[in-house]
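Write out the bound-state structure for 2-amino-3-ketobutyric acid.
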Amino acid sequence: MKNVLIIGSTGQIGSELTLKLRGLYPEGSIVAGYIPGFEPEGDLLESGPAAEVNVVDAKQIAEAVAKYDIDTIYNLAALLSATAEKYPLKAWDIQMNGLINILEVAREKGCAVFTPSSIGSFGPSTPHKDTPQDTIQRPTSMYGVTKVATELLSDYYFHKYGVDTRSVRFPGLISYKTLPGGGTTDYAVEIYYAAVKGEEFVCPIAEGTLMDMMYMPDALKAAVDIMEADASRLLHRNSFNIASMSFAPEDVFAAIRRQIPDARMRYEVDPVRQAIADSWPDNMDDSCARAEWGWKPSYDLDGMTADMIAHLREKLCTEAI
Ligand code: AKB
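---
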């Protein structure tokens, strides 16, 4: 990787990944792609180039790739699962028409492409415990449909045209920097904000609902390491299960309470998010990622909780001043 275009650079993953890549590849152009209304600000704006790139506009993608001599594209534009249920056609447009625009430019210009998949690519008929790398993928949400299609289309471009497509299936991602929006796993971020602010958390996901989750530093490491992996070792490409922790709402609440004993939570289950959560794995088996490119996470629930609370205390206190 040298010159990289991040499409969706101001989102939950992009805002952190762009800065990480600029730190790792200071000699290259790490271009923050954005759409109007979501312009980069602060560090993201000041530390490197930015370009207006809407994933559904093939010309904008081609222009940015040509201008900066891009060799790698991170395709992070997506509507998350709950929003995609509200706007299924828009989700299809962004996730599928956007992807084919990127793959076509990548085919012509020889770029490598990372497009994340998700625990959302699985469905009710998938084995929920230790979900294998290669298994049934029959999701019932539009988000899931687009994620399975993304995996298949990315493999198709690799096998047919030799485009270097690679990906991981992200769990719910937890970070103190940029908020997610419209996901089923967002509760696992919001619960920390509520606890640090001293507010009662109203949980939209039912007690006992297990889902894979991951702290952002591990997710960023995965996104970099998979693109740097030795291609000859990769038996899979699109897309690898990666895992670090699996928990239900009561587990993360208990972890927070060990540090903030007066944290409060009650349940008010959102049926749309709950149906999606029930269809997803309890925990994925990530042994292929470990064997093929050395995947190894650093954070467990207690380690993440300590770090989240410390950073949120600092952030929310600074914002209040
Ligand atoms: C969502 O909840 O939609 C995402 C995901 C797990 O892909 N965070």
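---
The first helix runs from residue 14 to 24.
The pocket of 2-amino-3-ketobutyric acid is lined by residues 80-81, 118-120, 143, 170, 172, 180, 183-185 (CB under 6 Å).
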